TrEMBL record:
PANTHER family, per database record: METHYLTRANSFERASE, RIBOSOMAL RNA LARGE SUBUNIT METHYLTRANSFERASE H
Functional summary from the UniProt entry: Specifically methylates the pseudouridine at position 1915 (m3Psi1915) in 23S rRNA.
GO terms for cellular component: cytoplasm
Pfam assignment, any one: SPOUT_MTase
Protein residues bound to S-adenosyl-L-methionine: L73, G105, L124, S125, K126, M127, T128, F129
Keyword entries, A-Z: Cytoplasm, Methyltransferase, rRNA processing, S-adenosyl-L-methionine, Transferase
Species for this entry: Pseudalgibacter alginicilyticus
Reaction catalysed by this enzyme: pseudouridine(1915) in 23S rRNA + S-adenosyl-L-methionine = N(3)-methylpseudouridine(1915) in 23S rRNA + S-adenosyl-L-homocysteine + H(+)
The protein's Enzyme Commission number: 2.1.1.177
GO MF annotation terms: rRNA (pseudouridine-N3-)-methyltransferase activity
Designated name of the protein: Ribosomal RNA large subunit methyltransferase H
Length: 157
């Protein structure tokens, strides 16, 4: 199985980018993982929130295949502790899907079409974090999840 993270907008903080890259490289020991960054939409000041969500949704949908399992990182999604999240990952790995795609939307969330396409929603916290920080937190939790599945000591250092 492959895991892909799709996110809107590049990270402008080099420290966050470096930390994200560290965890991304660590994940390579466990699974084929990739990140796809969709550039920010231009001229957003001329768009309503709904129009921006629609445009972002179309861009995200164009990056998905019909067989992808799609999980939206959404504030109203299911929350897990790290062990529960590792079990969630294991369930998808056992399901036989080829690619599991997690999506971080834009600042206003997702279009209705994205919710229709999604197989599930996941929330990392009830708190609000920048989209750039969510990338790091999510990738670290993916890494942690795989170390839990392998019974490695990272989770309880």
């Amino acid at each position: 199985m492959n895991i892909k993270l799709i996110a809107i907008g590049k990270t402008d903080n080099k420290d966050l980018e470096n930390l994200t890259n560290i965890y991304q490289s660590r994940l390579g020991f466990y699974i084929n993982f990739s990140i796809e960054i969709i550039p920010d939409i231009k001229n957003v000041k001329k768009l309503s929130e709904e129009q921006q969500k629609q445009k972002e949704g179309l861009l995200i949908l164009s990056k998905l295949s019909a067989t992808d399992a799609v999980i939206l990182l959404d504030e109203n999604g299911k929350q897990f502790d790290s062990v529960g999240f590792s079990s969630y990952l294991q369930k998808y790995m056992n399901s036989g899907i080829k690619q599991l795609v997690f999506v971080i939307g834009g600042p206003y969330g997702f279009s209705p079409e994205m919710y229709t396409k999604a197989n599930g929603k996941l929330s990392l916290s009830k708190m609000t974090f920048s989209h750039q920080m969510i990338r790091l937190f999510f990738i670290e939790q993916l890494y942690r999840g795989f170390t839990i599945l392998r019974n490695e000591p990272y989770h309880h250092r």
